[in-house]
Structures are given as C-alpha cells and as structure tokens.
C-alpha cells in the first residue's frame, strides 16, 4: 500500500495547517499518531488527528505499520451520506464550541439534531426483551461510544 502524502506533522496544529491548504485538493494523507489515553507530553495523539480531520470534513480510516515500526493513520475526506457515530457528532459539536470547526467541516455534517438518531427497531426489541438489560441501557448517559 502506497503512503501518499505522508506528513511530518508533530501535533494537531501542524496537521491543521496542512488541512487548511489541502483539504479541498488532496484525497488522503497519513500521519504518525499514538493511540491511548492522551496526556500532555508532546505526543501527537490519534484523537487530536481525528478531531482536526473532522473540522475539515475528513475522517480516519486505515492504519499501517511502517518498516521502522511507527504506525501511521490514514485520513481521507468523508464520503457524502456516510454514517456518523453519536460520539463523532459530539466531537464536532465540541470543535464548533472551541472555534476549530471550518465551513468545510460543517458542510460534511449529518443531521445533528436529536431527531437524527434512531435506534434500529430490531435492536430496540432485543434490548426490551430483557428487563435487566433494558433497565441498565436506560442508565447509560446520553452520549456513549457503543462501537
């Protein structure tokens, strides 16, 4: 697999600069990021790359381990009509509140209203079929990553 646009970005601001210049011209980029619980230690974290990508209508996809052992994350423009997790919708709301969201990112957003989320009827039926499961499900916070 060819790594087109392997960036040397060391943090979200450097990735953002590349996205400002290229989000509407390029089809992909790759960035070296670390996964895990972010701490303030100068590491370029996966979540920072994903949030910046979403600000420009992009999203993460494939990861690849390079010969030197470094793992890189592929970022691409989001396809129109693609599915959005509630977690990513909330990340976009937060990016809007912090002033990082761009017009390009806004154009890629799905229906962000609470009406835009509907639990599939078969899933709802399965949840309700067990009273303990249904009771526990209703105790979850409104925003939860259930992937």
Task: Explain what the structure shows.
- This protein has one domain.
- It is 37% helix and 13% strand.
- The chain has a three-stranded antiparallel β-sheet with strand order 1-3-2, with helices on one face.
- It has 147 residues and is of the alpha+beta class.
- It is globular, with a radius of gyration of 18 Å.
- Helix 1 runs parallel beside helix 2.
- The chain contains six helices and three strands, in the order αβαββαααα.
What's a concise summary of this model?
This protein has about 150 residues and is an alpha+beta fold.
Main attributes of the structure:
single chain, 147 residues, alpha+beta, three-stranded antiparallel β-sheet
Set down the secondary structure blueprint:
Elements: H1 12-22, E1 29-32, H2 46-55, E2 58-65, E3 71-77, H3 86-97, H4 103-108, H5 121-128, H6 131-137
Antiparallel strand pairs: 1-3, 2-3
Helix pairs in contact: 1-2, 2-3
Q: Kindly estimate the percentage of residues that lie in beta strands according to DSSP.
A: 5-15%
Given as residue ranges, the uncertain stretches (5+ residues, pLDDT < 50) are none
Please state how the strands of the largest beta sheet are arranged side by side: 1-3-2
Task: Write down the overall mean pLDDT.
Answer: 89
Structural class: alpha+beta
Oligomer: single chain
Task: Please state the CA-atom Rg, rounded to the nearest Å.
Answer: 18 Å
Helix-strand sequence? HEHEEHHHH
Structural domain count: 1
Coarse morphology: globular
Total count of helical runs of at least 4 residues: 6
- What about the largest sheet? 3 strands, antiparallel
What is the terminal separation in angstroms?
A: 27 Å
């Amino acid at each position: 697999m060819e790594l087109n646009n392997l960036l040397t970005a060391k943090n979200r601001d450097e990735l953002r600069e590349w996205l400002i210049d290229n989000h509407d011209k390029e089809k992909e980029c790759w960035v070296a990021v670390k996964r895990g619980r972010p701490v303030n230690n100068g590491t370029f974290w996966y979540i920072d790359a994903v949030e910046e990508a979403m600000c420009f209508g992009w999203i993460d996809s494939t990861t690849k381990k390079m010969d030197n052992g470094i793992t890189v994350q592929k970022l691409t423009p989001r396809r129109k009509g693609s599915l959005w997790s509630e977690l990513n919708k909330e990340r976009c709301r937060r990016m809007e509140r912090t002033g990082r969201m761009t017009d390009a990112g806004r154009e890629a957003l799905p229906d962000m209203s609470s009406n835009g989320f509907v639990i599939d009827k078969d899933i709802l039926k399965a949840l309700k079929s067990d009273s303990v499961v249904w009771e526990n499900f209703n105790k979850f916070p409104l925003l939860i990553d259930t992937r």
